[in-house]
Specification:
22% strand; 8-stranded antiparallel sheet; binds zinc ion; single chain; alpha+beta; 10 helices; 3 domains; Immunoglobulin-like
Length: 409
């Protein structure tokens, strides 16, 4: 974010509030009442939000307060300087470069107006979505999902392809997670990683592997329209929808307890595209004895790209192992444990009845290539077992037979 000292004064100027007395309009408020004539908020993404209020009263309006904040976040209170008058217009410019709002959040705002007669009026809350309006977005909705893409970006089926992938993958993912669906899911498709990253930098968001904002019901992805964009959609959209559904599954308090290996492991395992790069990273680390301990993947992954890549690859592999061994009930039991605030290790113990170390040992063993001998044993194992059983059954009979023989002979 730019922080030029010379700009600070300018920004403060923006925050100067205008209090103008006007003639009482025709739509005068009832005696003793306070009426709101204009109430709006307009934003320029990553720059400013401009809140405007015009109110009128029979007596002088003496004080106005603005309240605003993102849904689920802190509320900011701004007392506005007012020159007492019957009709007052105030404007507050909130500088988003100094105090960013979460991108794509729903922002609530309302006002409190006081007059000289001691009357107070609080407006009902209004809201707007803090979209990245540096771009013009097109949209397409269906089945509780809305896909937004930058106008003019992609061919006519671009948005429809994304919507189809979103709906179909959400259904598949939720067959396992069984999370309550949010009332609405909004998927914003940027035209490239650069513009998506820039949006995050502009709004002071840290780069995190995915760009889902599960608490907002918003998914952000970057999908250039060129080439086989549907393949990238099949990888990225299910990944981000998984985060959203994991969040839903452990809401309200549990998301911060969900270990990174489980959240990212599910997201990565749900990507609908083969991922040879993950497989290679995993196999190289295993062969070199450089696998990252599972315990270290309970927390956010390291920023180093190579280590991050291996972290995703391992998490994906661990989740696939849990799926194979414990099935959907195992995955859901894990999410329930973390929803209740379990630690990384105790969640595994509660849900899978194995220690985190035990899980790791079993998973690592599953990665070891099978020796030809062991594979052969496993293949003939059932026949060997039957043979052993037949011997065990036959043995007492033979003994009995011999004893008989001795007795009579
Ligand atoms: Zn992710």
């Amino acid at each position: 974010m730019p922080a030029f000292a010379s700009l600070v004064a300018l920004r403060r100027l923006w925050s100067v509030l205008v209090a103008v007395g006007l003639l009482l309009p025709a739509a005068a408020p009832a005696s003793g009442g306070i009426a709101v004539l204009e109430n709006r908020a307009e934003h320029a993404f990553a720059q400013r939000v401009t809140f405007t209020l015009q109110a009128a009263a029979d007596t002088d309006i003496t004080a106005i307060y603005l309240f605003f904040g993102p849904e689920g976040g802190d509320t900011t209170t701004v007392p506005l300087p007012v020159t007492p008058a019957h009709t007052v217009t105030v404007e507050h410019v909130h500088d988003l470069r100094d105090a960013p709002l979460p991108p794509f959040a729903i922002v609530n705002y309302w006002w409190r107006i006081e007059d000289a007669a001691g009357e107070t009026y609080t407006t009902p809350p209004e809201q707007f979505r803090y979209t990245d309006n540096r771009f013009r977005w097109e949209e397409l909705s269906g089945g509780g999902f809305t896909v937004h893409w930058i106008a003019g970006h992609g061919d006519p089926v671009f948005g429809q392809t994304a919507l189809d992938i979103a709906r179909q993958s959400a259904e598949e993912i939720n067959a396992e997670l069984r999370a309550p669906l949010p009332p609405a899911v909004d998927i914003y498709i940027y035209d490239g990683q650069y513009n998506l990253d820039a949006a995050m930098v502009l709004t002071g968001q840290e780069w995190v592997g995915g760009q889902a904002h599960p608490e907002l019901g918003v998914v952000l992805v970057a999908i250039p329209a060129e080439g086989n964009y549907a393949a990238k959609m099949r990888r990225d959209i299910p990944h981000e929808i998984t985060h959203l559904l994991v969040y839903q599954a452990v809401t309200p308090a549990g998301y911060r307890y969900v270990p990174e290996w489980l959240d990212e492991g599910l997201a990565t395992a749900n990507e609908q595209l083969p991922a040879p790069d993950y497989d290679v990273a995993l196999e190289n680390a295993r062969a070199a004895g450089r696998l990252i301990p599972l315990q270290d993947l309970c927390v956010p992954f390291p920023p180093d790209p190579g280590r991050a890549m291996l972290s995703y690859a391992e998490s994906r592999s661990v989740v696939r192992f849990i799926r194979e061994r414990y099935g959907g009930p195992g995955i859901r039991a894990l999410l329930r444990a973390y929803a209740d605030g379990a630690s990384c290790a105790s969640g595994v113990r509660q849900a899978l009845h194995v220690s985190l170390g035990g899980l790791e040992t079993a998973w690592r063993a599953s990665l070891e290539p099978q020796s030809p001998w062991r594979a052969a044993v496993e293949q003939v194992g059932v026949w060997v077992g039957l043979w052993v059983l037949s011997v065990l059954v036959a043995l007492p009979l033979a003994t009995v037979g011999r004893r008989y023989g001795h007795g009579t002979g």
